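Suppose you are handed a protein chain with no further information: no name, no annotation, nothing but its sequence. What can you learn? This example shows the usual starting point.
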Amino acid sequence: MRSEVAKTTVTAMNTQHLLSEVLSRYGSVEEFCSRLRDSLDDTVELPLTPPEPETGGRHRRYDPA
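A reasonable first move is to predict its three-dimensional structure. Written in structure tokens, the prediction is:
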């Protein structure tokens, strides 16, 4: 029981600390989320690579022709 109370207290303290940091750096949670979205939206499109051709390996399905 005591460890549950300690975990709750630590989590609440971490949450309060995080909120305090966000507000001091960005002014609001909305501004923080906006900047976070903007930084994540800068995705790079990677070229698609074609699959490697089958080599006729040991576990290849046998298809009689």
